[in-house]
Automatic annotation (TrEMBL):
It comes from the Bacteria. It comes from Rhodoferax sediminis. It holds the Pfam family AMP-binding. Keywords: Ligase. Gene3D superfamilies: 3.30.300.30, N-terminal domain of ligase-like (3.40.50.12780). Residues 129-282 form the AMP-dependent synthetase/ligase domain. Transmembrane segments: none annotated. GO terms for molecular function: ligase activity. This is Phenylacetate--CoA ligase family protein. InterPro entries: AMP-bd_C_sf, AMP-dep_synth/lig_dom, ANL_N_sf.
């Protein structure tokens, strides 16, 4: 698998960055003009001036919980079920509406490969003229439709297997002889195990594109031993494809239709390349123009180019959740509060709040990396902790590079026995 889906995948990085940034002002203007939610969120922003990553980083982050809250408020008032984020009207321009847990309602428009999954399918080895067995759900959530529309754009036929009914899935695979599988990796293992139990061979199922859950190397190797090359992609119901795996097996390559930032959890501040932080995505979809949408997922940028020859930026993949809010002595403490404390002191390079002890006897320690240690710095930081969180906390000053690069801003190290 050395060919590419299109020439976008191998264009010079400078050319790609210029194209993304050139499209950015128009998408910001589109969101302001056609999305009631972003008209408010981006009020006062001069769209024509958002032409750089630095300008983008000054815009507010909209996180999924805020999107849900706006949708719930609008529905309670008898208004727009999408909370003002969608620019389409019900009818021919919006053939489907989906629901993710919350519920959060998502629109699907009419553009070919609406969720941009064809690129990930191609990287996983699927080619025009093949039949794909799709075991993502076709009801409520958009996963089944996301993958099917990508497969159709690639020129493939799809069997809508959906979830469950394992024996029937095996029978259909044996009789239809699909080239591969789309779905969660765990369900593929269940199907393969069931086929072995039933004494039915599935020799044509030689490749798979999996998503929606972890795909550990152990399961990847287990499938490979049974003749199935499994690849993963990272996508969401809000944004479509974000990144995908290639034959290089070194991280996930970003999709060509999104602009990705990695920020310090709880903030909108970009972190240095290689540091773990929250994945923030700006989509170029005019129907659902999410600007600086916080996924809540942790990841990091990988240095260098992908050995597959694709020139887009790579991320390490999913590395946990960014929402580390915890309750201490009856009070919620948020990552944004830790960031607020750190910002007050130019000497602080990085901060991490550790909550230790036992329930009802917990204690907070703010560990901070500092380039210098002026008099009474620890005491002043301690005062800021109390001012911001309304709780007392200890301060531990550390040399630069002491804290782990794992994206954690709050570590809950308490004992719950």
């Amino acid at each position: 698998m050395t060919s590419f889906y299109d020439t976008l995948e191998t264009r010079p990085p400078v050319e790609r960055e210029a194209a993304l940034l050139a499209a950015l002002p128009g998408q910001v203007a589109n969101a302001q003009a056609r999305s009631a939610a972003f008209a408010g969120i981006l009020q006062g922003v001069q769209a024509a001036a958002v032409t750089s990553r630095a300008a983008l980083a000054r815009l507010p982050v909209t996180r999924k919980h805020a999107l849900l809250e706006r949708q719930q408020a609008a529905r309670a008032a008898g208004g727009d079920v999408f909370g003002g984020f969608c620019t389409l009207a019900l009818g021919a321009a919006m053939p489907r509406v989906f629901a993710s847990p919350g519920p959060i309602y998502e629109p699907e428009g009419t553009r070919r490969d609406y969720w941009r999954l064809a690129r990930a399918l191609f990287a996983a080895g699927f080619r025009p003229g093949e039949l794909i067995h799709n075991c993502f759900s076709y009801h409520f959530v958009p996963a089944g439709s996301m993958m099917e529309s990508g497969a159709h754009a690639l020129g493939c036929s799809v069997f809508p297997g959906g979830t469950g009914q394992t024996e029937q899935q095996v029978q259909a695979m044996a009789e239809l002889k699909p080239a591969g599988y789309i779905g969660t990796p765990s369900f593929l293992k269940i199907i393969v195990d069931k086929a072995a139990e039933m004494g039915i061979a599935l020799p044509t199922v030689s490749k798979a594109l999996v998503s929606a859950e972890a795909f550990p190397p152990s399961l990847r190797d287990w499938l490979a031993e049974r003749g199935i090359a499994g690849y993963q992609c990272y996508a969401s119901a809000d944004l479509g494809l974000i990144a995908y795996e290639t034959e290089a097996r070194e991280g996930l390559v970003l999709d060509e239709g999104v602009l990705v930032e990695i920020v310090r959890p709880g903030t909108g501040e970009p972190v240095p390349e290689g540091e773990v932080g929250e994945l923030i995505v700006t989509t170029l979809n005019p129907d659902y123009p999410l600007i600086r949408f916080g996924t809540g997922d942790l990841s990091a940028i990988l240095p260098g180019a992908c050995p597959s020859g694709r020139t887009n930026t790579r991320i390490k993949g999913w590395m946990g959740r960014a929402d580390q809010t915890t309750k201490v002595r009856g009070m919620f403490v948020h990552p944004a509060q830790v960031a607020d404390i750190a910002r007050r002191f130019p000497e602080v390079l990085k901060a991490r709040l550790v909550v230790a002890g036992e329930m009802a006897h917990d204690r907070m320690t703010l560990q901070v990396e500092t380039a210098s240690n002026p008099p009474e710095l620890a005491a002043r930081i301690g005062e800021a902790i109390r001012d911001v969180t309304k709780l007392r906390g200890d301060v531990q000053l550390l040399s630069p590079g002491s804290l782990p690069n794992d994206g954690k801003v709050i570590e809950d190290a308490r004992s719950y026995r």
